[in-house]
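Researcher: Let's run the pair from yesterday's discussion. Sequence first, then tokens, for each.
Model: Starting with the first of the pair.
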Amino acid sequence: DNFFNFQNRSRSLSISARKALGAVRFFFSHSTGNDHKGISFYGGEPLLRWKTISETTEFARRSAEPSHRLLFGITTNGTSLHDDTISKFLANNRFAVHVSLDGPAHIHDRFRRNPAGEASFATIMSGLDTLRSYYKEDFYRWVHFNAVVTPLSDLDEMREFFRQFEFIRHPGQLRVNYVSLEGAKPELDSLFSDPTTQTRHTRQLRAAREHYLACLVNDREPEILEQALFHRQFRILFSRQVDETEVRRHHPIPVPAICIPLQKKLFVDAHGKFYICEKLNDFTNFGDIERGIAQNRLYRFYESYIEEFAVPYCAACWAKRFCSLCYVSVYASARRRREDRNRKCDQIRQRLTQDLIDYTEVLEKNPQGFDFFLRQTGETINEETT
């Protein structure tokens, strides 16, 4: 599948309709040979410019070949979904909608407030009602939730909230990400690093993991939050590619997290510049909609990463086939310090060691403990399942 992603990297900037339509033209003309095509919108808050999104979507439909299967996606804070025009548009075009929601109101509203400082939870709940009225039963296949966990998050309260949350029916609707402290404001860094806070969070996280593993041993469905917290890492082990020869056919070294730049997806910002990923900085700008892709610069970037980082760090590492580190681990920060990469590599190996121990212990007690991974297909639709 090929994906083209629009993103506003600055709150004060929005991509113009002219550039958005130009980007779609570029995408279609440079993604031949694959009839599955996806277009996603990020922000800032993309729905503040929903008319541009509407115009771009309609243009893409008019420009697509009859054989093309188009999928549209959007990541939103959910505060505009109460607008019937917007929700109807998203439903009619079967957008895969990803709503940022961190749990119950007092947890979510701590860091999710509008520019005026007002809480957003109640507005989101109203918007979800509106959105569901247009998607109807398809709501539970097309609408997903992204929760950010911080050391201040109360996992017990989050687990209870998502267990009873009326807008989730399938575990695949919820994804959890941990807050990154890189580049965080000093006051947040201090707040998250408080020893008492860290101890409580670590204790809750350990208890959640133990309960998750106990459910697998006893053939019970883990809690929705626990699946969002731990499924991804164990699914990697469960669905691993055993034959490295097959892996090497697609990549010079078997590191699944390292993508071939621009092979499957391309990001464009408000200026019309192209990037590998929405998480990377200007160092990975490889052209724009006017001049196209700067191929020589792209090749140099890829080759230098392989030579400078992938070969010395990854080639002889036992964890490389299960590693989640990619370009972001090096280039998301301006520092690019080797000690930062060493620290992240050590953390990955430590985590994976514990994952392998837990994975083996579950299978020793219940050989079918992870078989429910085979059953969890087709429940939801997003950019990764098409």
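Model: Moving on to the second of the pair.
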Amino acid sequence: AARIDRAMADEHPQVLNATLEGVHVADGTRDRENPTAPTLALAAGPELRHNRLVQERPAENLALIKRVLDKDYLEFQLDKLTTDENSDETFTKVKLQLSDTGGQVMDVEGEGVGLVDAVFSALLARFGPEYQSLNSIEVADFKVVALLDTKEKKVGVDSLGKVTLGVFNSEGKLFEFSDESRSVSRSSARAVLAAVEYFVNAERAFIMLHRALVDARERRRDDLVTRYTRELAEVVKSTSFTEVIEKMKKDLKNI
């Protein structure tokens, strides 16, 4: 039985820490030094009809993060969005009802100057204390484009709108999250949610791989040390600063 458990740990490092809570996210990155580098556009999310969720993400990191987190990789869905905004746009309050593939439902609230600021505040208040990397990301860009070829009425105001949110991590790398729907408010909230989900997952995957690496070293499994070190080097590109991650990065340099 012990040999079977160890084999499972070798192939799936997430079994070394089954107590971590998971959050699924999606993302897309473009390097500041190479902003034209290609990204892969994938359809994702629970709604693929008129309100289709389309997000750009680095395929190799997404696949790696999914494999590391395995069954703990959860997808968050925005079930309900309520906004309260004053007339001069200096104050916006939001209430979000979220659910995940594990069946958990949660209500979060926040306020800010405008919808995006309020949604970010709500999600950071909920997830920031546990996932410190969220406190070091920075909004870099926010764009809304009307996809007029999707209109069903002549006037065109029913067209799909594409919201794109750009976020810098602590290393200055740009990640882009896009969402399309007929509600700009809803798409804006889902784009912010996608960004938060992604950095949460990246942080968790990095920590999980590092624990697997430590275990492999203790067992003198040079093959696994090489594998986990290589995978950590990729996942770290998708993380943002935390003291825990910085300590682990320094540890990797000493291998």
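Researcher: Give me one sentence on the second I can quote.
Model: The longest helix spans residues 184-218.
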